Amino acid sequence: MSDIQHASSAELNVKEIVKKATELNDFSHLLAHVPYAKFIGMEVVRFGDELVFQLPAKDENIGNPTLPAIHGGVIAGFMEMSAIVQLMVFMQTSKVPKIVDFSIDYLRAGYHRDTFAECKITRQGRRVANVNINCWQTNRKSLIATARAHFLIE
Predict the structure, then answer these.
(1) What is the CB neighbour count within 10 angstroms for residue 18?
(2) Tens digit of pLDDT for each residue in 83-137?
(3) Whole-angstrom distance, CA of residue 78 vs CA of residue 140
């Protein structure tokens, strides 16, 4: 169970938090309820109908100090959290989507610098949603990773 699922099931009204974040165009309150997102330093910026997720350069996220490069698990977690937030915002879910499947392709090293992700909901059924996630650093066309995720939505 992801951190946001655990936190939300305990005492939070997910729909109200998402609605408030969307209305204020400030997703920091939403991310503050996700311990892992806080730990890695994840941020969200909205440009019209598009959300861009940011993972600022942070020493604690380094997995290979020789390069230095971000840990692959941090990149995967960042991309998964991005997809969850994307679904919550654009589908106005009342519960946190549950991950069914997540497949990631690492394309190149993610160096110790700001990292970005964008998500595209490719299929939205009544119970299942599919999301593609692209992750880059200095250029959107030069991806460091790409992923596909399937979520159960309620």
Answers:
(1) 23
(2) 999 999 998 888 899 999 999 999 999 999 999 999 999 998 889 999 999 999 9
(3) 16
Number of residues that this document lists for the chain? 154
Amino acid identity, position 30: L
Report the 3 state secondary structure along the chain: CCHHHHHHHHHCCHHHHHHHHHHHCCCHHHHHCCHHHHHHCCEEEEECCEEEEEECCCHHHEEECCCCEECHHHHHHHHHHHHHHHHHHHHCCCCCCEEEEEEEEECCCCECCCEEEEEEEEEECCCEEEEEEEEECCCCCCEEEEEEEEEECC
Angle of the 14-24 helix axis to the 72-91 helix axis, nearest 10? 90
Domains along the sequence of the chain with CATH: 3-152 (3.10.129.10)
